[in-house]
Structures are given as structure tokens and as C-alpha cells.
DNA sequence: GTCTATAAGCAGATAGAC
DNA sequence: GTCTATCTGCTTATAGAC
């Protein structure tokens, strides 16, 4: 594995855990076991350039995970249930679920560049597109599918924040049980 | 108004906008127009002590706002609708809604003290208690009321994050329109 | 209760050797 | 491509005068 990929991999986790401002360059160098010179060779524009690369890495990892699950199960209801189960599984194994969200970056956006905002926005849109396509296949109108996709995205992201705050996977369990209500055709 | 309250008021906004790590002590002093000596007189244990005070201030402001609205409207559905309308109004007037959430702090929690985590958790529990009480009054069983309250909390917090990311109040509008589906008694 | 001066350490970033 | 040495500016925090 090359150095650049190593930096992206390790730094992605650090950013997800502690946020952008919460991770110092020296910490990155230490954990990656590299020098400043090496870091700046791969990211000439410094830490924020690394952040963008990490966000793209998170985006790929998260969307491909979701796509995988949504391709494996026939309905949105089943796929969503399995997806949340997977996140809960990660929580129970690793003790945290920061790897499943970019909320640590989103929350700092106000002080970061517009490129960061766009990269975050892109990820959310991609997630919602996956949900929306499945919902349309379930028979919802395009408009309704889009609305439910936003609601799914919001409630899952919000529930992840609640889980992190309460140190418990319960909020995710609760919304997993309630989401079917949203997927009823009235 | 005394200095301590002034510091708490101004710093609360800064923390909500930029997160804990994102706000330097010098910035606080500058905006409050006070000196280091004055700051450390009121908060001998430094910045994190100020954060706890600010979190309590946010907690009071947010819960009393919600309580106010939930007392004014007869059903959860109406109250929720009005509450989200209010947040959207703030977004349209101020261009942001960081004042309505503690997500910036929640996202940094992994690197902060356990006291911070508890204070954040407390706020979420208080919000859910207000929702849950109203839902019980609407006729839901205690258990169901608690579940829906978690879902409301998660989806609203999540939607706020989406709004901040997309620079648009649309996600809040979408969930406001969908929440009634959750409040249907099956 | 507020001020200034000071301190030790770390931030992100650069230069230039190898 | 990786290294060390260095730089500037900022970080939180303290001491002590007023």
C-alpha cells in the first residue's frame, strides 16, 4: 500500500472520530509514522487537501456499503432494516459508529471551505438517490420517493448522533422499528 | 448584564457555529471585549468550564422554546409543525440554524470529557420527554410515545444537519410534511 | 473584578539535504 | 519520496499589578 493511501485511510478515521479541527497535523504524522516532508509531498495544500481526499474516501465507502445492501434485498423496508442492523453491529463490536457518518465534519462546516460543504452535500445526495430509486421500485411516485429518502437520511443521521451521545445503540433500534410506518402506502 | 452572562451568551453562539475546538480563547476575548484575566476569573478551569456553562444555556433555551410551543398547541402534530416552521423561519432570517442544535458539540464529543457527553445527553432526553408527554396526551401508549419521541428527535436533528450542508431549509420542510405519517394510530 | 505581561507548547507550513 | 530543522503565529494558561 502506498503512503498516500495510508495517510487517507488513517486520517479518515481520525477525522471521523475527532473532527477536522480536533486532529492536529502532528497527530496524523505520528499515527501514520511519517514525516512532515512526506505529508506535504502528497498533499501540497496541507491539511484541508487531505480532508477533501478523506471525505471522498468516506463517501465511497459509505455509498458502496449502502448500495451493496440495497442490491441484496428486494424492498426498501428489508434493505433499510438490514442496513441499520449492520450499523448496530459495528457499534456493538467497535464501541462507536463514527465510521458510519460524516457528521463530525458537517458540524464544523461553518468554518471550512465551500468545497468541503459541497463534498458533504454530494454524499448525502448520493445516499438519498439510492433510497429514492428503491422506493420508486417499490411503487412510490418519484416525488414521494424523494421525500421519504430525505426522511430516511435525516432520521438515520440523527439517530447516529443520538447513539454517540447516549453511548447506546437504542435510538437506531427505535427508528428501525418505526421506519416501516413511513413506508406504508396511504 | 454581568460579564459572566455576557461571556456565556456570546460564546454559546460561537461554539454552536464553529464547534469547541474551532473557537480559540482569543476569539472569545475579542468578541466579548474582555481580557484573559477577566475570563479566567469567571471560569477558573478555562475553556471547557465555559463550554459546560454554554451547553446548559443552550439546553435551557432550546427546551423552553419547545415547551412553549408544545403548551400552545393542542396536538403533537400541530405543535411539531409549528416548531419546525419556527426553525425554518430562523433559517430564512439568519441564513443558518446553528442556534437550534448542539450538533457541533456532539460531533466533537469523542475528544471531550464525559461531563460534556452527559450534558448533551441530558438535553436530548429533556426534548424527548416533552414530545413523549404530548404523545401520551394524544392517546399513545407510553412505550409507543417514547419511540415516536426518539424518532422525532432524530429526524429533526438529522434534518438540521442536512439543511446546514445543503444551505437550504428544504429537508426540514420535507420531514415536517412526513412526520404526520408517524403520528397516525395504526 | 479587570487589566497587562509573560510563558511554554503546539498549530500548520516551508526549505533544503539526502 | 522521505527526512530534519526551522519559522511564524496562535493556543491555553498563569502571575501579579491596579
From TrEMBL, chains A, B:
Residues 1-61 form the HTH tetR-type domain. GO terms for molecular function: DNA binding. It comes from the Bacteria. Residues 24-43 bind DNA. InterPro entries: Homeodomain-like_sf (IPR009057), HTH_TetR (IPR001647), Tet_transcr_reg_TetR-rel_C_sf (IPR036271), YxaF_TetR_C (IPR054156). Coiled coil: none annotated. Pfam families: TetR_C_13_2, TetR_N. Gene3D superfamilies: Tetracycline Repressor, domain 2. Keywords: DNA-binding, Transcription, Transcription regulation. PANTHER family: HTH-TYPE TRANSCRIPTIONAL REGULATOR LMRA (PTHR47506:SF3), TRANSCRIPTIONAL REGULATORY PROTEIN (PTHR47506). This is HTH tetR-type domain-containing protein. It comes from Neobacillus bataviensis LMG 21833.
